[in-house]
Amino acid sequence: MANIGGARGDVSAYLTGSSRLVHATSNGVDSPDSIAVDGRTGEVYVASLIGNKVTVFAPGARTIERTITAGISYPIAMGFEKLGGSLFVLNNTNSTVSVYAPGASTPTRIIRAGIHFPTAMAFGDSGTLFVANTKGPKPALNTVTEYAPGANWPKETINLHIDNPSALAIDPQDNLYVADLGTGPDAPLRTGSVTVYAPGKDRPFLQFDAGVDRPRALLFNGDHLFIANLHGNDGKGSVANYAWRYGRLLNLVRMGIDHPNALAMDRLDNLYVANTNGNSITVYKAASQAMLRSITTGVNAPLALAISP
């Protein structure tokens, strides 16, 4: 878990299924906002906004294995491509996506075309990359761009019903889900929404509005789609649980929620929520509103979560 609170922030590690803090480190960390685990090696990657770097830790270790700085500029998100295992890093300030081969510290390629102040990304099962772009000074650049595997130029560009994209996700049928904060003047709904696009289409066929209020994160698990909302619930936010195949809201999780910015799921299908304002990680029984526990030790304004495979 990445904490942005404190002087420079830190990274805390816990045993899955418990609230016990295993270790915490600020070594090599400077305002971390994204964390990812390499499913092949178990290495933990931490992106630091202010430090303009990605720090790599060995599995279960507090010592730095290596530091990636080449091709990094205000890294706002990162993730591993499913097929080849390459690391993709979204650089917000210089509007690029840097791609690193497994184990590499210098990029093998940098994607520039179609990228503009990126905020989020997602991968399809075939290796297709989707990137959410925000407008900056140009409203027409609120888009989601799609790239074929290995491509540096966009295959498709989606801009219909996109105003302030904050998160992307792909369902098992390869449909694209776009969470829109809805705070700008072009927003279809000022409270935001989640719109759904079929593969290869630039017009949404479904929109989720019920229980959606400034959506910040998306997570699929089986038949469920979880949406983290920054607003609602007296300003503390909530997590909406949808039956995504039917577009039906099942329940709203409010207990223990306070400005949720990240979601994760363990092997037992328990839901983990990073509450940035609440300085906590709350854990909920699979697909229910029942809170199992709240983790507060070692938690200070958490922004990101990752669970080792």
Topology diagram in text:
Elements: E1 2-3, E2 10-14, E3 21-25, E4 32-37, E5 44-48, E6 53-57, E7 64-68, E8 75-80, E9 87-91, E10 96-100, E11 109-111, E12 118-123, E13 129-133, E14 143-147, E15 156-158, E16 165-170, E17 176-180, E18 193-197, E19 206-208, E20 215-221, E21 224-229, E22 238-243, E23 248-253, E24 260-265, E25 271-275, E26 280-284, E27 291-295, E28 302-304
Antiparallel strand pairs: 1-2, 1-28, 2-3, 4-5, 5-6, 6-7, 8-9, 9-10, 10-11, 12-13, 13-14, 14-15, 16-17, 17-18, 18-19, 20-21, 21-22, 22-23, 24-25, 25-26, 26-27
Give an account of the 3D structure.
There is one protein chain. The protein is an all-beta fold and 309 residues long. 0% of the residues lie in helices and 45% in strands. It has a domain at 210-276 and 284-297. The chain has strands at residues 2-3, 10-14, 21-25, 32-37, 44-48, 53-57, 64-68, 75-80, 87-91, 96-100, 109-111, 118-123, 129-133, 143-147, 156-158, 165-170, 176-180, 193-197, 206-208, 215-221, 224-229, 238-243, 248-253, 260-265, 271-275, 280-284, 291-295, 302-304. A 4-stranded antiparallel sheet has the order 3-2-1-28, with no helix packed on it. A 4-stranded antiparallel sheet has the order 4-5-6-7, with no helix packed on it. It has a 4-stranded antiparallel sheet with strand order 8-9-10-11, with no helix packed on it. A hairpin with a 6-residue loop joins strand 1 (2-3) and strand 2 (10-14). The model is unreliable at 185-189 (pLDDT under 50).
